[in-house]
Amino acid sequence: MTRIGIVGAGAGAAAATFVLDEAVPDATITVLEKSGGVCGRAATRRRDGTTYRYDYGANYVKSDDERVTELLTETLDADGLVDASDPVWTFTADGDVSEGRDADEHKWSYTEGLTQIAKRLFARTDASVRRRTRIETIHRMADDDTWTVTDAAGDDHGPFDVLVLNPPAPQTAELLRAADWDDERRAALAAAVETVDYRSVWTAVLGYGFRIDRPYYALVNTDKEHAVGWISREECKRGHVPDGESVLIVQANHEWSVDRYDDPPAENVAALAERAAAILEDDRLADPDWTDHQGWRYALPESGPEAPGTFREATEAGLYCVGDWMAGEGRLHAALRNGLDTGEEIALSL
What we know:
Blueprint: E1 3-7, H1 11-23, E2 28-32, E3 44-46, E4 53-55, E5 61-62, H2 66-75, E6 81-83, E7 88-91, E8 97-98, E9 107-110, H3 116-123, E10 128-130, E11 135-141, E12 146-151, E13 156-160, E14 162-165, H4 169-177, H5 184-193, E15 198-208, E16 218-221, E17 228-233, E18 246-252, H6 254-260, H7 265-280, E19 290-301, H8 308-315, E20 319-321, H9 324-327, H10 332-349
Parallel strand pairs: 1-2, 1-14, 2-10, 7-16, 14-20
Antiparallel strand pairs: 3-4, 5-9, 6-9, 7-8, 11-12, 12-13, 15-18, 15-19, 16-17, 17-18
Helix pairs in contact: 1-3, 1-10, 4-5, 5-8
């Protein structure tokens, strides 16, 4: 029997688990997730006591990868899959809106939100998913070449023959730096992971009791000079917003997000609502009926890690990394594809 431990329950981890459960039938897979949810930044919230659902991190899955497209539309149950078919337009630093950028053939979510991707993948496996389990230390057991991990409560998990790390690169690097692993590969791997730069994103969710009538699903700031980087309309996704109402997802750019990350949330929300109102030229939008927010310190990797040979050497010890940052592209389809490929790589090694 092969014992596999996975730290983090993001999209990449879910895809890897899905592959491993099928390809290695005798494996026992344990997924350890620090939060109460799954799918990482592909996150969905449901407003208490209402039918509102909104994707407040990643906005949708692109159809840029044939294998991921097949996974969503054929392999998994496609019931509830929705396509935000309206186009993505652009705006400039001056707030000028124009047509121009709808390169994505499909923009998929689910009526119940993007979190469904990981939920459906895990549901197709026998993996044990332990939520609210924050892993703080990883250990390499020299006597039998296995791995154990220790959570914030001091509880140990394992031993594992294979360990997969799914947190964002900075958090993965922290785990590696603090790892109880007396091997030169540890420092080299941590250094390679640390080469991945990230963009932060601070998100405001703005709810309105009226319908915002626009010919587009979203606006993106292509020159990256505006404080707002992205505005999208959740009502364009079937099942997310009651008829006649609207929800805007307003995501600040990296510089604004870093500068204001720890400011009072109410002030950030109000500032982003005012900017959204100006861009959409509708003063009503500065005063939403309800709001929500989320800061994503490690939102989007700017590139992949350097020194790929270092990662290959780590696999010889049964240690793997998975996620969009390994693919070098901060996109949900990239995380899923990397998870599928990594799952197959692990299966072949076993």
